[in-house]
Amino acid sequence: MKKLIYIIVVVLFSSCGDFLEESSQDLIIPKTVKDYSEFLFGEGYIRNNTSIHTYLDIMTDDVEEKANTWPVMQSDIRGDGYGYFCWQPNPEYRFTGALNTDNAWETYYSKILIANNVIDLLDDAEGIQSDKDDLLGEAYFLRAYCYFMLVNLYGEPYEKETADKALGIPFNYEHSVRERTYKRETLARSYELIEKDLIKSIQLLEATDYTKTVFRISKGAAYLLASRFYLYKKDYEQAISYADKVLTVNSALYDIRTLTEEDYVFTKENPEIIWTYGDYEVNYLSAAYRGCFPVSMAFYNSFHANDARKRTYVKDDWGDLIVGKGAANTGVYGFAFRTAEAYLNRAEANAELGHTDLALDDIEHLRKYRYEVEVPITVSTKTDVIQLVRQERRFELCFEQHRWFDLRRWDRPRIEHIYTTDMNSSQKVKFVLEENDKAYTLPLPVEVKEFDYNLENINRPERKGVIVQ
Question: For residue 6, how many other CB atoms are within 10 A of its CB?
């Protein structure tokens, strides 16, 4: 077993523990399980200062454009998100033509490299075996999660009938930096490799069963990722099985009916948070008075009047509809694995299998903590129950970067966006994402294409738009 971890840029490790002080500028030598734990948590985890794929929600039907000619001193950030909002072939380019780099590919593959180091080298570290096993469980989870996000960003939508031919993503199991080229696996192979890591993670975390804070990966988080993974794969029995496991660990729901319009949902008081991570600052939403991408009025109006989520998940900020789930001072990170998703995953899987009563049981249970006054559910057919579950999922998980992935794996519907190309003349252009459009898959980032031109890319159609005003 190799005993050295080679990393080219020492600044990567600046947030880790004291053991790094003994290292030279181009290598570190972790000695104990604690050292590796600090290494993984400091560099492998998606931390509160990690902001990635902030464009996901602006590609959906949950947002619209805001464009004002005043106040002139305020920023207009619409140009940064133009390529995503209007589903352009190369969405990283701003309206001006300047590059707005998509850092998701680089971020996730760098986290994978850290996980690879722990998986490959931890065996020789000093420490008890159960601590090693638990840390390995976290590392396998992180690798599975990163690949899962990558395949849903840059891989084609999963369909069982075409998965063995559809484009997936490259996989790297090296633990050191090497200059080499990679090839894209098929979508079926990609899911197979992710599943292997996920199952290994669950086995290890179940065996140790350590009690942890919401900032460290636990078996509950692994169960929820598995439930999500199998739901996306349309393996509904497995999605239900793992949702059941999540709710065995934690079945609590936050009674948001007790919250005021000033309160946030993502706080340390929220009992349904299983794992919290990442940065909630969504740059293209409600961030500028002159031009931005606020919550769609049509989406806002689709909430029932008695639904407390209408005032807690979305907030009115001087006439602008902004996302209101989290803030920097709430004591938790911006994104979270929550028990609410487990209920929704199980409800959707049961609805797809025709178990409509079980699906409605979960929806009714969730709504007890969301609706000010009970609103009876009247649907009964399989088709109507599926639509109800999808609607509840949209309301509950809005602006947590689920909607784009849900649209991809469901029916990839037609969406229209209006973009003001010239605020001085108020010229508005309609852009359309067609049903089953190739633009439901992101192209490789520009920097990736330049580095490895052999990687096959998604050819998204040109989209010029139609002037409507």
Answer: 13
Containing H/E element for 351?
Answer: helix 339-352
**Residue 86 near residue 463 (C-beta atoms within 8 A):** yes
Residues 141, 195 contacting (CB under 8 angstroms)? no
**DSSP characters over 65-83:** -EE-S--TTS-BTHHHHHH
Residue type for position 319? G
The residue ranges of DSSP E strands in 272-362, in sequence order, are 273-277, 291-292, 314-317, 320-323, 335-338
**Pairwise CA distance, residues 82 & 419, whole Å:** 8
Q: Give φ, ψ of 451 to 5 degrees.
A: -80, -40
Burial class (CB in 10 A: 0-12, 13-18, 19+), 120: middle
pLDDT of residue 13: 33
Q: For 137-175, give one letter per residue: b (16+ CB within 10 A) or e.
A: bbbbbbbbbbbbbbbbbbbbbbeeeebeebbbbbbeeeb
Cα angle at 447 between 446 and 453, to 5 degrees? 80
Specify the pTM. Answer: 0.93
Question: Which span out of 15-24, 34-43, 50-59, 74-83 was modeled with the highest average pLDDT?
Answer: 34-43
Angle of CA points 452, 454, 457, to nearest 5°:
95
Q: SS3 breakdown of the chain: % helix, strand, coil, rounded to 5?
A: 40, 10, 45
Token pair 């590059």 is found at 99
Tokens standing for residue 4: 């050295």
In degrees, to the nearest 5, what angle opens at C-alpha 296 toward C-alphas 262 and 366? 60
Task: Tell me the mean pLDDT in the region 429-458.
Answer: 93
Summarize the confidence of residues 444-452 as an average pLDDT: 89
Strand 273-277 and strand 291-292: the pairing is unpaired
Comparing CA positions, the residue from 373, 350, 375 lying closest to residue 361 is 350
CA-CA distance, 221 to 339, in Å (whole number)? 10
Q: Which two tokens stand for residue 207?
A: 């065996």
Q: Three-state SS for 426? A: coil
Cis check for the bond before 71: say yes or no (omega within 30 of 0).
yes
Q: For residue 76, what is the DSSP state?
A: B
Number of C-alpha atoms within 13 angstroms, CB side, residue 298? 9
